[in-house]
Amino acid sequence: MKKEGPGCSSIAFGEAEEIGPFHIKPDGKTLYLNQYSWNQVANILFLDSPIGVGFSYSNSSEELLENGDIKTAKDSLEFLLKWFTRFPQYKGRDFYITGESYAGHYVPQLAQAIVRYHQSTSDKSINLKGYMVGNALTDDYNDHLGIFQFMWSTGLISDQTYKLLNELCDNESFIHSSSQCDKMLDIANDELGNIDPYSIFTPSCPKGSSSNKLLKRIHSTRPLGENYDPCTEAHSTVYFNSQEVQKALHVDPSFASSKWETCSDVVNTHWKDSPRSVLDIYQELIPTGLRIWMFSGDTDSVIPVTSTRYSIDALKLPTTSPWRAWYHNGQVGGWTQQYAGLTFVSIRGAGHEVPLHKPQLALTLIKAFLSGTPMPTMSKHSDS
Q: In the record, what terms sit under GO molecular function (predicted)?
């Protein structure tokens, strides 16, 4: 299962750009085979959630104004229970949840909902084995700390801006920040220039500079999971607005919106609740024995590797296997450390959307996660 940021379609990004079997060509009409698709190692269910995202709908338009973390977890659990009833042949199979960005909230919250559901009922149709999140929004304090440090250490912002961001945005919510913090975020965005904050060492789209508004997007619940190449989002928009495509996907025209969008502004602007931290969920779920992995592309400045490492450090978990490099085809693919109940993996040279930037390394990652084995060493690396 693949989940994106609040209001963004998992099909538009996760399926059509990252881990799905087919990706969309620039003409917006034809597809090409993704040789590194994750469906080579697992059956994948892409869920557009909450309601109002992609082709997901409600009979009541008022519900679109009531979305938030709590409701999304509740609705996603209800969807899964009904899906397994509709397709009983999948009941009992090993089930994992994966996601990136704002799914740092969605994924552990859904895992928690499933675990609590199992504890309160005899229904065990969802055989949850674990979850994995990447470049994940996890804890507002640690995420801020890591973002500001990453931007400063990579030379994206000035010393003065770095100092003021830490002073004025300390302990601020990602969702409801103060006017002083917002002002500093604007200054930081101006200093970033026209770069792609989701992948800071790759070219940005020459058609505009909106992609550098990374911090303002986060603080106004803008989509966190947008494309690596900001010029290619239109491909999905053209493709999924095609009547032929919608018919093939069995979209009910009576419920379809007049225009399909990769991200819903209505969902974003009316987001109700977003806890400042989900670390308490990790503390609740780690003792259950679920397989929990966190990964991070190390060229992302939106939710950078530093943020994830600060959040993991806050859990104060004992190390079971120390920090080391992992390998793919004889080259360092990133670094990894194993803790009691949690594994961390960085992906060298990848941005916010790891499977988009480094598809081969991402496939190596998912294989290791599903098999429950450590990332490859130099002497035993994957050739996939």
A: serine-type carboxypeptidase activity
CB distance 14 to 20 below 8 Å: yes
Largest CA distance in the chain: 59
Q: Let me know if 352 is a catalytic residue.
A: yes
Catalytic one of 219, 300, 301, 328: 300
Q: How confident is the model at residue 232 (pLDDT cuts 50, 70, 90)?
A: low
Which residue out of 235, 328, 352, 357 is catalytically annotated?
352
Rounded to whole angstroms, how far apart are CA atoms 78 and 12? 23
Alpha carbons 138 and 87: distance in angstroms, whole number: 33
Query: Once rounded to an integer, what is the mean pLDDT over residues 181-192?
Result: 93
- CA 257 – CA 53 distance, rounded (Å): 10
Q: What is the pLDDT of residues 192-220, one digit of tens each?
A: 999 989 999 988 766 543 444 444 344 33
pLDDT digits (tens, 9 = 90+) for 95-152: 999 999 999 999 999 999 999 999 999 998 999 999 999 999 999 999 999 999 999 9
**Which structural domains are found in the chain, ordered by start?**
2-140+232-263+273-371 (3.40.50.1820), 141-224 (no CATH)
- Catalytic one among 49, 56, 101, 264? 101
Q: Is 76 a catalytic residue?
A: no
Predicted local confidence at residue 183, as pLDDT: 92
Q: State how far the Cα of 9 lies from the Cα of 16, in Å rounded to an integer.
A: 10
- Whether 383 shows a pLDDT value over 80: the answer reads no
301 in catalytic set: no
366: closest CA among 340, 345, 348?
A: 345
Query: Could you tell me which of 378, 193, 220, 384 has the C-alpha nearest to residue 301?
Result: 193
Mean pLDDT of the 272-300 span = 97
Strand, coil or helix: 289: coil
CB atoms within 10 A of CB 378: 12
Alpha helices (H) along 65-197:
69-86, 103-120, 140-153, 159-168, 179-192
